[in-house]
Amino acid sequence: MSTPEVTVIQDIRPLIAFVAPLLGVIGIVWAGEKRKNLRETFTFLVASIQATVVLSMVPLLLSGTIVEFHVWQMFTHVPLLLRVDGFGLLFACVASLLWIATTVYSIGYMRGLHEHAQTRFYAFFAISLSATIGVAFSANLLTIYFFYEMLSVSTFPLVTHMQDKEARTGGRTYLGYLLFTSLCILLPALSWCYVWLDGGNVAMDFLADTGKVGSFSETTQIILLILFTFGFAKAGIMPLHSWLPGAMVAPTPVSALLHAVAVVKVGVFCVVRVYSDIFGTEVLQQLDGEDWMIGIACATILISSLIALSQDNLKRRLAFSTIGQLGYVILGATLATQQGIGGSVLHIAMHACGKITLFFCAGAIFVATGKKYVSELRGLGRKMPVTMGAFMIGSLSVIGLPPLGGFVSKWYLALGALDRGATWVVFVLLISSLLNVFYLLPVAVTAFFRNPADDSEPEIKEAPMACVIPLSITAIGCFVLFFIAGPLVSMVGLTD
Amino acid sequence: MENSIAWIFIFPLFGSVACAILGISNRKICYPIAVLSMAGSLWAGIETLRQVLSVNDHTVSYLFGGWTLDAYPRGVGIEFHADILGILITLVVLGVGLLVSLYSKLPVEEETPGKEPLFYTLFLLQVTGLAGICLTGDAFNLYVLIEVAALTGYGLIAIGSNRAAAATFNYLILGTIGASLYLLGVGYIYIKTGTLNMVGIHDIIVAEGLADSATMQVAFVLVGVGILIKMAFFPFHAWLPNAYSNAPTTTSCLLAPVVTKVMIYVMIRMVLSVFGVEFSFESTLWTDVLPWLVVVAIVCAAVMALAQREIKRMLSYLIVAEVGYMVGGVWIYNYYGLIGSIFHVISDACMTLCLFLGAGLILRKAKTTHFDGLRGLFTKMPLTMTGFFIGGFSIIGLPPTCGFFSKWYLITGGMVSQRWEYMIVLMFSTMVMVVLFFRMIERIHLAVSESGENLGHGHGDLGLTDQQTRFDEGPLSMLIPLLLASAVVLVVGIYNQEVVSLIEVFLSDFNLPRGEGIK
Predict the structure, then answer these.
(1) In terms of C-beta density within 10 A (0-12 exposed, 13-18 middle, 19 or more buried), how is residue A454 classed?
(2) Are the C-beta atoms of B445 and B378 separated by less than 8 Å?
(3) CA atoms of B489 and B404, how far apart (whole Å)
(4) pLDDT tens string A414-441
(5) What's the predicted TM-score (pTM) here?
(6) Which residues of A touch B431 (CB under 8 A)?
(7) Complex-level ipTM
(8) How far is A232 from A178, CA to CA, in rounded Å?
(9) Closest chain B residue to A221 measured between Cα atoms?
(10) Where do the structural domains in chain B lie, given as residue ranges?
């Protein structure tokens, strides 16, 4: 993202977007379990503030202005710097808007199931979103690492929300993977860059220091690339993906937002940042072993889709689908072309909207019927038409059919592959889309077109309105994303 | 104030005398005396720091008894010599002392009833000794002050239970061996150089080219090994876990954060200022050997910490591992490693204080510090737990706590010297600490027994009575020091640049390698 004619202004807005949820936590904890409505008002309030602030920066960006805010000098050469560029802003928009939807949904879900410790839930949710925005607006590697770690730790109480044995296993896998990779793989790579580049005087800024790693030897560059790709294990690239299905023990709103939007997308976002803004397309294209990374991404896409086919538990199927879709984002980054990287940032947004719809639906089905398995869904379409309709739309968007958002990003990914001269990647994309069809469509088809196993089941109705409205909105969002693709495409620095 | 460096000692020294005398008639008066002396001493320390920063060569000297430094070699006399490093570590000692003295009111009354005058007398003498170690400019005085700190330390530990007395005996023997070795080394130095003044010793080593002298080499080894024993460097650590985990709460809160750290300071002082960079790093084998011993030390200490099921014992082994970090930071021999080591002395003192203050509060409310008694403590005492785990996250090295920054410099140091074994072992122990602290979080937060059975009935039921999970924080006199300590952990982390720039000023006097770029 280095277009020459941008102007940079100093503004506090990125910091507000980051701090607002943290301040909200005080209100949430203060209101507590006894004043539920007030507590949810606080969540709602800070989510709206965050979204407004983030959206207010869109016109600035489109007119070629980049907003920066210098928070604090961490090291002599490395500031904690927030900067709003196209990639970050698009991601921040998606995260903050979907947070509002998730808040509404959480109210329906958590109250519908009479969950415990809802205050803790909302408090840590807000902290997680604060960290997500931090990642989106980070201007250098160390800043992004800060917020990345903050997110790992603040989501732990959400993942282990059930506080039982299963939660313990899930939580251990979750933290084990994430902290092991960030402390033992990522941190050495980070210090390597900070120590050896430019005699230790480099901030690893995403704007100013792009391509400086090119001064390392080829071997070092490849090693760094591998360390960075696998160090951000939130990206779920195989073989470091097992934490994601494990983390599905969390309540559905958590799975929905954190495991379709915030956590995993933070992972892939970081990887994209490293590829596009630390290495840069020129350095990457001259790097010999870089093709292998494309191969790893493609393998992740195909293998996870195949695993998803065999999952009967709906949330687990969606989890593996997520791993596959994250593979797309990584793939776009590894292609190292303008189109490919743009496509992968778009895919972060498009997939987020589609996948959160699917998770919302899975949760709504669970609230209304207590069903978790695909095979139990027969005939549910007639009883829960809105939910299953939204599920259908979400599926089609993830598969990538027009006029839904998912089509746009896949289109640019394919263009990126052709730019790179890797025609075989297009075939991988096609095969994987077919696999998407095979594991996603049967869910909706079973629900709509197959008769229920027996009619003696108790009366099933739609989930509470607080669940149904958000999932309808995100389903509509999938259409909207297709039609506003133009501005989005220019936000990530591409032209139609 | 001109003589603030002397006031640093006058406050606690006379405070201790006051405790001993006034305490006979009124035991209640000891606590305010201790707090006030610590506050006064800390104020004098800050004043001294200001003086040190305001003079050109960044050293302030105070000669007791009116002798002069003009003779060559420098004569023998009591000199207090504050440079940036010394006064920084002194401030850490005094800060810890103030917070612990604030905290001590209830634990001292309850755990050692009737012995308050004795306890506070020893407490203040301990602080005097530790601050003296950091500021003295004389190698023999250093020995005396080490013994002052050690003897009062034995008393402070043994004042508790019978088990503590047994642990103290162990400590006493190892501590005495360490101090004797040090004294022997100082003897050799005196034979060869004819002076005991630290600056004087260094001048003569440089002027007469004593780097190859066998006598000085022997002296170096004796002094070095003596200090390693005193700082509980593995395998000389055996005294530490028993002594700290059986000691009364206040004692462990005071000794654990500072005693080992002050000995690290002594090592840095000896290596840099007394023997000098060239002597210590170039003409001895320590640079080659010690990083490997550090690897063994950290691995063993970390593994032993994993085996503990009791908070204070676990923390004691963590201290042993952290000592390994800092020793390694010095002996990987470069600029960044030393910054890391010195900064880690400061940050480790802050975070260990946090953890031990927290452990004291847990002990008071949960009646145990065994892992089995932790369930539901987040609901019962959320503030205590937050404070405790800020310390824990700092030990792990999560930003923005100070532990992250010191570890960052240590890793950088390992990378610059290309001591990969040191870097890998830092990673390893970091992972062990993740396991240690998140295992505790699991115990506190989840309703699962160690063997994996569900104890509650779902929906956050912890399998405890309402009585056991009701909000019930510890007394404010203990809680506030803990929260202050955790705030310090964060503030030192956020303002690490200010601290590091002071350390950089100190290190700029020494010719340390900064590494050449590798591709």
Answers:
(1) exposed
(2) yes
(3) 10
(4) 998 898 888 888 999 999 999 999 988 8
(5) 0.91
(6) 179-180, 183-184
(7) 0.88
(8) 8
(9) B519
(10) 1-278, 285-519
